[in-house]
Amino acid sequence: MELFINLTLFSMLVVTALAILRMRHLFAVVMLSSVFSLLCALLFVTLDAVDVAFTEAAVGAGISSVLMLGTMALTARHEKMPREFSPIPLIVVVATGAVLIYGTLDMPDFGSPDSPAQAHLATQYLTQSPTDIGVPNVVTAILASYRGYDTLGETVVVFTACVGVLMLIGGLARRRRKQGEETK
Amino acid sequence: MSMQFILSHLNYWLFIILMMIGFYIVVARGNYIKKIVGLNVFQVSVFMFYISIGKVEGGTAPIFPVDMDIDPNVVYSNPLPHVLILTAIVVGIATTSLGLALIVRIREEFGTIEEDEILEIESKLQQEENSAEGPAMGGRA
Question: By C-alpha distance, which of A31, A34, A36, A14 is closest to B24?
Fold first, then answer.
């Protein structure tokens, strides 16, 4: 049953991604990327990552679509005719995919409880966090406590990006007004 | 390659297929907004790949009962990838917004967000510069 749900979600994801590739109307592309994120959130739920699903639905489908729509409004609504088909990107992509798939052949089975990823730190977190921290959600406990510095670093990254965006487009309205006066 | 092997690795391969579609959008399409969307597709596929490593067969989400009365027979999935990916999603939106801001600036300077046209304008500018400065600057006039 789980395999069936996974495969259904996957085929929908692939169709959405291919539609993104083919569409030239940018509004449709942005909406499809939002759909893609929501489908991913569903897949995260089937993979037991409910916190990630929440974040993906809010950030991937919500905030990033709003940002992209804003950019679209300031720039262009249509993609120009795509350049002529060239085989080089396709070759690069297929080669990269083949190498990656070759790399997964050594990986442990999907969902196997004795894979290396499950062996050390995970069990430690699962057994100790009730006594160490006492928060029912283990993900929250790790995020805010065991790996609190990680989260602090994340905040620094977001702050830096905010400053960067403000510096890049901060004077946009002023520059436009100036340009308007010059042309008058 | 047995059927069992294929079924247990199918998930990984499907994620890689999605990843490669995103990669293809990035390299083969000239519109910058579309490139960013492709980058997002690629990024989310990597996230799903990573989360799938933490999945345990028959497991459930790593959230204990509220009264913290933990049944030792319940299997929980690995919470560590979830934490790392939560961080990665937020960092991803930060880089996306920076990229979009750059696109707005590019459009302001060049009047277009198509890669081909920008390259054309740039080479024209370069040619003008070279012919203006001429051999004095050592450029090809």
Answer: A14
Could you report the predicted ipTM of this complex, rounded to two decimals?
Answer: 0.89
B140 to chain A nearest CA, in Å? 29
Q: Is the CB of residue A20 less than 8 Å from the CB of residue A36?
A: yes
Domain locations in chain A? 1-80, 132-184
Q: Which of B45, B73, B93, B102 to mutate to test the interface with A (most CBs of A within 10 A)?
A: B93
Provide the shortest C-alpha distance from residue B46 to chain A (in Å).
11
Q: Which two tokens stand for residue A21?
A: 């590739």
Cα B33 from Cα A47, distance rounded (Å): 30
pTM more than 0.90 = no
B95 touches chain A (CB under 8 A): yes
Percent of chain A at pLDDT > 70 equals: 97
Which residues is A25 bridged to in the sheet?
A78
